[in-house]
Every structure is written in C-alpha cells, then in structure tokens.
Write a structure and sequence with these properties.
Length: 454
C-alpha cells in the first residue's frame, strides 16, 4: 500500500503539548506535505485546555477537531473515524510519512511502524538522527489493546508493550525520501536468493527480560527462516521456559561462558545453511526483515547485507542511516558503518574469510567487517529493519568491555593495524590477509529444547 492510498484512510493525531508555536509549525508542514492529505486531523490536548488552544489557532485551523485527553484509550478512541492512526508526540518533529508497507495489512490488523524523519545523505554517506521522541503509525486497535494513559513516543510505546507482555509486530520504515521502483535485475551470480536456506542465530547471556520480544519478531517474519536457534552462553538461569513458548525455536547451551563470537562460529561450523541471519537477544526485528534482506542480497549480488537501525537509549532515540555500499576506502568518517546484528551473511563468504575471530570476546564484529570489505560485496538495505536496545552492562556499555574501555581500545588498535596493512597490500597489488586475528576451538553445545538443526 502506497502513501497515496494510505493517507486518506489515516487519522493524524498531533499531541498539542505546551509549545503552541511548535504545533502551528507542524500544521503548516502538514498542509505543505504529500497529496492526498490525511483523511482526518485531530489535536490531542490536556484536559481543560481546549478553549484556550482554540482561541490561539489561526482561522485556517479553526476547523480542526480538538480532543481533551486524559486517557488515550478512553478519550481518543471515540474520535478516530479512519482505519489507520498516525500519532505524533508534542516534542517529535514532523516529516511527511512515507507509508510503503511491504507486508499484507489485511493479515496484520495490529502493527507498529516507526515514523522516522528522513536523513538527507548520499548513498555513500552516513547520518545519525537524535530525537527525544518519535511518532508511530498503527491502527486504532492499538488504543484498545493497550491501556495508554498519556501521550507515548515510539520509545515509551515499546516499553509499555513489553511491560504489558503484549507482542505487536513492527513494520520496517523507509530510510530514503524517494522510494525505489522495481528491484533491479541481478548483475552476476547471487550467493543468496529468496530460496536460500537461512538459520537465524541468537546469542544469549542473561537477557531473559528481552528474549521473548526478540523471538516473537523472528517467528512472525513474512519470510520465515528455516530454523531459529538461541545459543545460551552459560547464563545464570537458562532461558528454557521462555524458548519453550516458541516450539519452532531451538535452544542450545554452552558448558562455559565463551562470548558471542565463539558461540556463533561454533554453530555455523556445525550447520549447513546457505545464509545466517543475526540478532542479539535484547533486540528485535521488523517482521519483513528477512524477506527484504534476501531480496536485496539477490538483486545486489551481495555476500553480506545489513539494514538501517533504530537505537533505543533510556532518554532518547537515535536513528542510524548507514552507507548503502561499503568499500575498502582507507578514509572513513564512521568507524562502524554497519550494524552486524542486523545482517544476513552467506555461508560461502564465511568460509572464504575463515569465519569470526572466535578467540575474541568483544569487537569480533568489527574485526570480521575489517576483513570482509577486502573480500566481497557488503551492502546495507535502505530501510529501518532493526531495533537495537542500548542497556546497562552490555558488551558495549560495561566498564570492562565497553566502547571506551582500555581492553576494547587495545583490541581495536590491533584490528586497525591489520586493516591498514591490508590497504598497503591492496595498493601494491597483493592479496589481503583474510584470516581472523584470534581463534578458539568450537564448543560442544547441549541441546535443551526445540528442533534439531538441519
């Protein structure tokens, strides 16, 4: 469904907030936006403010409905006369929504699509957007499903859904202002196609709080992976009961804590799939992620395909729009121009590179990428398909292994030295050094539940 079809069927709800000038600026942007316009525009105000707000509205906006909201579910729902809902918090910027759903809406009467402003960059550049809050697109049924009392940004909505133990699928959102037409015809021989057999890999360590949301997003993909496996890294408590809620998901447990890259490499070594899709156990995916990654891999003849990501901090949301084609340029403004956990990578490419540096407990993704750009085609899908949660005491935030820690800087410097050496070798016409900088032997997993991997 395109924006032209979607907008007339959508109610735009603008949370008024305290800054009326900001609201008026948004209303002017709405009038200048895409045609056709929204089917209905509704202003949501705090109780007792309707008369005051109406008096300050210019004549051109006097026709708009104003609803005084104490509870979104009780007070807003009766005003919604269209099948779809676009909600924008008072402190969220307005941008013309691009509603280009790849999934069949009739199969998903309840969904969430992030409302992300476009970051104007070229295909070779990257950009970061930082927002106190962002809007979202759904259906009025969301208000019936959730007991939303006050206005909710995208970040707060996710937290409320998780706390209520309610699972709702997310749709991907375009990261580009101009939509592409039909996918191009592949130029060359793709290593991954829409028919490829894919294993979804979820390394897990003490992430029980978020694992259910993670797995829900994988078992409801529009194009299901052939198998999904959780590899528990000897957590304090095994996530057995959580995984049992998803009969199609397998759970394997490591006898010792070894770090994510040794878990991943051991599982890849012990299976025979065409491609491997990654996801951290405290993150979640759009339900069309694998379908879109496979299509992009086939049409782009790529060995590795990632996606754009939305990053959830405790007090803000960051949107990261990465370069679409990643090359081995020695100069880069961004050290990590990819999100490895959003990726789909072919098995043949893994074998060619010798796999992950399984002897590393952190920075293994950066190390793998630093070799990959010399050996194959690495690209990013131009859609937000991956939702990443930044939390306390993870590998990238803890004092021992975080991005600012001494131990990580030491490992990363070794990676940079090898990367620089490969640039020199390439410039002189020699083959780059592709072997991992540190490896460890595979581990023997204990199979706890779910199907055997085939």
């Amino acid at each position: 469904m395109s924006s032209n079809d979607f907008l007339p069927q959508t109610t735009l709800v603008l949370d008024v907030g305290k800054n009326l000038d900001f609201l008026l600026a948004k209303l002017n942007q709405v009038n200048l936006g895409n045609k056709p316009s929204f089917g209905q525009i509704l202003l949501a105000s705090p109780p007792g403010q309707k008369t005051k707000i109406f008096a300050k509205l210019p004549e051109s906006f006097k026709h708009l409905e104003i609803a005084e909201i104490q509870s979104l579910r009780l007070d807003l729902f009766p005003f919604l006369h269209k099948p779809y809902l676009a909600y924008l918090p008072s402190d969220a910027p307005y941008s013309p929504p691009q509603m280009d759903f790849g999934a069949d809406l009739e199969k998903h009467p309840l969904f969430i699509q992030p409302w992300v402003p476009f970051l104007k960059t070229s295909d070779s550049e990257w950009a970061r957007g930082v927002y106190l809050s962002l809007g979202w697109i759904s259906t009025p049924k969301l208000l019936q499903k959730m007991d939303l009392i006050n206005g909710f940004s995208l970040r707060d909505l996710e937290r409320s859904i998780r706390n209520a133990h309610t699972e709702i699928p997310y749709f991907s959102a375009s990261a580009s202002e101009s939509l592409n037409g039909k996918p191009p015809v592949p130029q060359g021989q793709p290593t991954l196609t829409k028919a490829s057999r894919v294993l979804a890999l979820v390394p897990h360590f003490n992430c029980e709080e978020w694992l259910e949301q993670c797995l829900y997003s994988l078992v409801h993909q529009t194009r299901l992976p052939e198998n999904i496996v959780v590899m528990d890294d000897c957590s304090t408590h095994s996530p057995l009961e959580i995984v049992k809620k998803f009969p199609s998901v397998a759970l394997f447990r490591s006898p010792e804590n070894v770090g994510p890259y040794r878990l991943l490499q051991s599982m890849i070594d012990q299976t025979q799939f065409d491609g491997y899709m990654f996801q951290d156990s405290d993150d979640w995916s759009s339900l069309d992620r694998l379908e879109l990654l496979l299509r992009e891999a086939e049409t782009g003849c790529a060995d590795w395909v990632g996606s754009q990501e939305i990053v959830y901090f405790s007090d803000a949301i960051h949107t990261l729009r990465y370069p679409l084609i990643l090359k081995d340029s020695p100069q880069s403004l961004m050290r990590y121009p990819f999100c490895y956990s959003s990726s789909l990578i072919s098995r043949s490419f893994f074998k060619h590179l010798g796999g992950f540096a399984s002897g590393l407990r952190f920075s293994g993704d950066f190390e793998f990428f630093s070799r990959a750009i010399f050996a194959g085609k690495v690209i990013n899908l131009d859609r937000y398909c991956y939702h990443r949660r930044v939390r306390k005491d993870s590998l990238i935030t803890s004092e021992e292994t975080g991005l600012a820690s001494h131990s990580r800087k030491e490992v990363d410097s070794q990676i940079e030295v090898k990367k620089a050496a490969n640039h020199v070798l390439r410039s002189k016409g020699f083959a780059p050094l592709l072997e991992p900088i540190k490896t460890a032997p595979p581990i023997r997993f204990q199979h706890l539940t779910g199907p055997q991997l085939i």
